[in-house]
Design brief:
The protein has seven helices and 16 strands. It has helices at about 1-10, 60-65, 100-110, 145-170, 205, 265-275, 275-295, and strands at about 20-30, 30-40, 40-45, 50-55, 70, 85-90, 100, 120-125, 130-135, 180-185, 195, 215-220, 225, 230-235, 240-245, 255-260.
Amino acid sequence: MKHILENKMKEAGVRILYNTTFSKAVTDGKKVCGVVVENIEGRKAFTSKMVVDCTGDGCVAADAGCAFEVGEDGDYTECQAMTLMFLVGNIPEKYKDGLMIYEKLNAAYQKAGKEIPFKVPYLIPVPNTHFGVIQFTHMYNYNPLDAMDLTDAVIEGRQQLIDAFEYLTKYDDEFKELELITSASVLGVRESRRINGEYTMELNDLLNGTEFEDAVARVTFNADLHTKSNKGQRCFYVKPYTVPMRSLIPEGYDGIIVAGRCISGTREAMASYRVSGNCCQMGENAGYAISEAIKTDTDIRKVKINRKLTL
């Protein structure tokens, strides 16, 4: 998939630059004119007609001065739990189609005299193999905008997955031969900044299945908040709905749009559109929109996304 996407980008004339990290926004008042980045060559500045912030955390928008929300009324400890996924091998044949493994993990934790950190764990199979990815570790009360907190969350996550593996293989006969292969290279952060945009997505938009004229993504994933209060999930069942371009445009700013979980929305709304497939739709159509805006010298707000959005 990576190779295919690289080829598609090259065919489209995109110049790819890996191993490069955003550092600062280049601004002229409330207009974003480019970015400063860091890589092995040091610090470089790139000027641009428009910037798409797909950092997930809204880093470019925030550095440019765009207003944002985080957590519950600014309390980052209310942000959803973070997760470090891990890969296991030698899954029992009977579970090759996946398993909700709470009962097994909880029983193993009880035998170990420990409290389970998450009550809705999944064993997600890798098709046509005996491998599976486990979504289980949950780290609460860490600041998603603090580098040391993110580091500590990774360390705690690795300890949690080691504990889970040891308890499961020790106390559950069906999983005695389970193999721990690796942990994820990147921490899964479900929630951080939500940039204030020209339209704020709300839970009612999801519950009502709202169709926006300036839609850039179609979403079917239910709102799913991983909460510390019950170490589980709080869910809202939604109707298929769309995300408007206005939610990608930071209020009062030009030269920038955001895409992904950092768009403008409430915590409950973000809990639905935050997942990867939805973020990919937003990113793709954000790129299409700025391309059209630049080619036709049109305000991004007036660009029509004349593309079919599929479920």
